[in-house]
């Protein structure tokens, strides 16, 4: 957006340590010494991505845990003390605020049993994210719950990595006979192969990739470059931003969510439009572009992020930003929503 002339500063405003500034050409610059790697910028802007894991990777991991039939437990590094080894169903984040409302909405729309294990009293003293982390995390979860109509669970306990002999050696809260019976059951699962199948990362990755491929096929997003004789470069590019794709996947799971999700998108007054295509020239996502068939303005609301660059560029003032719901994104998968 900024590379195309927008003046968005959400990342800089959200950064708890003022580590983000902007160069003369508008590109964000990160002060490595000031950055605490809280990943809050990932939750407020699609332009930022972790060097360790993307939101798509994180979502895939959560789905694999759910496919094993386990509850997904999310926590932050501030809540994991030395000596605590979280179980395989626990996802430890730098800060819970690195997850956007769209991410939470997708997880809830998929009916994934998800819980948060965090003592929010630690947020105030957190050197990584501070009060901004709690503020943004709470906003994201509450927004997703309102959009999806489903709740996020909370727990006071972070599950620890299982140990077959732990209960037998230290039978706290359980008698030795029950502890031994549990051990025998686990050993039986190992011998029969059930435990391997249940915990097989390869198997769960296969199921997750298959389900995700089906979801993306249903969305028919058409990302990538297409040949277009009506632009100087000879090709146009459509880019689906991660948060919008997550929202579309959530709508695919539950279309009823759409009416509860407010959006800002662009709208064209066709009577004033002269097809100058100035709006298409500045569109950072390809939501507006010349139709490869005849060169007239084509518009796909699913790619529109409401940045307003098109409204500023239109010489006829034919483009405005309007408030709609996500219902405007439904029913456009098989073609274009023409301007």
UniProtKB/TrEMBL annotation:
It comes from the Bacteria. GO terms for molecular function: 4 iron, 4 sulfur cluster binding; metal ion binding. SUPFAM superfamilies: 4Fe-4S ferredoxins. Pfam families: Fer4_7 (PF12838). InterPro entries: 4Fe4S_Fe-S-bd, 4Fe4S_Fe_S_CS, Fe-S_Ferredoxin. The keyword 4Fe-4S applies. Keywords: 4Fe-4S, Iron, Iron-sulfur, Metal-binding. Residues 8-25, 26-56, 264-293, 295-324 form the 4Fe-4S ferredoxin-type domain. This is 4Fe-4S dicluster domain-containing protein. It comes from Gordonibacter massiliensis.
